[in-house]
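Here we describe the complex-level prediction in full. Unlike the single-chain runs in Section 2.1, the two entities below were treated as one system.
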Amino acid sequence: MQFMLLFSRQGKLRLQKWYVPLSDKEKKKITRELVQTVLARKPKMCSFLEWRDLKIVYKRYASLYFCCAIEDQDNELITLEIIHRYVELLDKYFGSVCELDIIFNFEKAYFILDEFLLGGEAQETSKKNVLKAIEQADLLQEVRHLIKITVDKVF
Amino acid sequence: MPAPIRLRELIRTIRTARTQAEEREMIQKECAAIRSSFREEDNTYRCRNVAKLLYMHMLGYPAHFGQLECLKLIASQKFTDKRIGYLGAMLLLDERQDVHLLMTNCIKNDLNHSTQYVQGLALCTLGCMGSSEMCRDLAGEVEKLLKTSNSYLRKKAALCAVHVIRKVPELMEMFLPATKNLLSEKNHGVLHTSVVLLTEMCERSPDMLAHFRKLVPQLVRILKNLIMSGYSPEHDVSGISDPFLQVRILRLLRILGKSDDDSSEAMNDILAQVATNTETSKNVGNAILYETVLTIMDIKSESGLRVLAINILGRFLLNNDKNIRYVALTSLLKTVQTDHNAVQRHRSTIVDCLKDLDVSIKRRAMELSFALVNGNNIRGMMKELLYFLDSCDPEFKADCASGVFLAAEKYAPSKRWHIDTIMRVLTTAGSYVRDDSVPNLIQLITNSVEMHAYTVQRLYKALLDDISQQPLVQVASWCIGEYGDLLVSGQCEEEEPIQDEVLDVLEGLLVSNLSTPVTRGYALTAIMKLSTRFSSVNRIKKVVSIYGSSIDVELQQRAVEYNALFKKYDHMRANPNPNIAVITIHASNSTEADMTDFVFQAAVPKTFQLQLLSPSSNVVPALNQGTVTQVIRVLNPQKQQLRMRIKLTYTLKGSAVQDLAEVNNFPPQSWQ
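The structure predicted for the assembly as a whole is:
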């Protein structure tokens, strides 16, 4: 995997994980173009598209698009499963996850992703083990966020 | 100095901004506060401030002033600091900046930390963004961790090693010893990452590939256990045990089995087993089948297995899930050359995919359809493809038109069908055909001598309907100019136009807003050519003289030159091209056997130019039962005596024959 992007239906970036070295300017350009391309897709279209020399795999979960760029030899169908596994992990961790969780706890979303994937490949195929590792690491944190922020307005 | 506001508080505040300007103001204010906090070297809140900076960075605001702070966080003893510090490094730093090298020492220390989660952070960061220099410095540490018994670290070290190898391929050798017993691990995480590492090594080095071939039996065994083992809740996905690992093993087997008979044989059974036993109701099962098919097609599998694979793809094509249809078409496109007959069996399903709503599926179906066209199915396939051309999105039209032309050229069952097909393309997708189509088509039409009348009539009629499609208009203009005499002479069955009507049409092209300058050039030249075929020479003279003062330089130049022809060379009208001699050769064969592969070649002295049109056939029938005719046009501007060296080659009774001769006795009228 070369990179993974999470963005809302309005095109707002919620997470960006890059596994290839690119300048900030290039990342911004790629993000802008790709987000535009994916948002323009109609619901009946398939989850794969060719973009530049990459294969793009994307799937929408509620208000968030999960978008991965994979290489030629990578299996598109299993990438869908990778995306799904990540969503499941987020869901288990946050308890019925929604976009707001990712917005307010973006650093945790990254920590979870980094326990699941490393260098663009899956490092752990057991859901249980990923969650256990995050749990243990959270315990090591010197400052614990015990209170979940409640938001009285949804934007 | 009050404590800096908390991260979530900041997020909430920024989200209340109603305009971009309001947001920018809030961000600038907070950045200023963060900057001064950094200047004060505040250790307590550094973590909080960097986290806020990362949020603002995600919104698109610059955060480079936080780079060094990330390094300070990484160097801190607190786990919370390290966690945010490493995250910040991965988001804000990249290998182009020298500052990233300052991380190297910290990472080295953390790779040896007593807490595995700290070691994990270091491995993750190195494996995600480590530069070549960092990788060189730290490869030894990674290699050490690759041999640890701690599976949490071992799996991360394996993927980190993959990154190191990608950045510094020369270091691959040093990881070889550590791979020795990687596959004996029970831990799936380690197994998965080990397979990824082995795959990377095999892809990069033929020596490694040869070395790791001996792992095939072990890989087969692991795969077999995954399939045969009962329900394992930890790794189960919709009833399938660790599909991620299965897919990676299949991919490694593909690499190991390619071009190797023994390995391919060793994996034959397991591939057949996976192909037949995998549950196909969900995406996860199909993901495994897909990888299996790719492997079967790439290794030296027996034909039964290959047919099994193609049939799986055929079933994929009928799947409701469009993602599955998409990968099926992609895979079939890869195999259509090598397993052409097997893929042909699914032709009708593939053609149905032309009507799919998804653009990517349509494109693949189109490419595959063209790959499947042959002499037997050309009529049926062309019907479908022309229908597709009619209704497809503009982005496809150019490629589809080219494909149709190519297929028609290769497999046209008759000249008339060929020309009709071209006409159809020009009328339905005329504006999308490539520029070189026009001269190619003109060439094709020229060579189909017996079709000239039919072609010019059809093209003329098409012009009456629509003059907006430029390639069509250009080809039509050229043909009318060339064969206008046939158009008005009553050679066609239908009502033929009269000369003035034809000239009306061509003049209409000259004045129309729809015509491009190139088209106008064609039209003007055609009108000029008709001056030798039609009797309305005065009308043509008038038209040509008007365009002598055209704004379009190209048009003006042509008109002026044509005008000159009218003035200076009018006396040559009867013989429009005195410098060209047209010679027709007739070849006959009095022997008992047919002459096949008959080719006539000619060479002329330097001052001449030669054009050989296509022969009527390349078989000269035996016993004078028929002749082969061929037209030669010779340009002789210096009016020199015509001489020719000819060469005949043909096959007679199985042997190749070559005949050379000189021809010097051309009648003087042909060159004087």
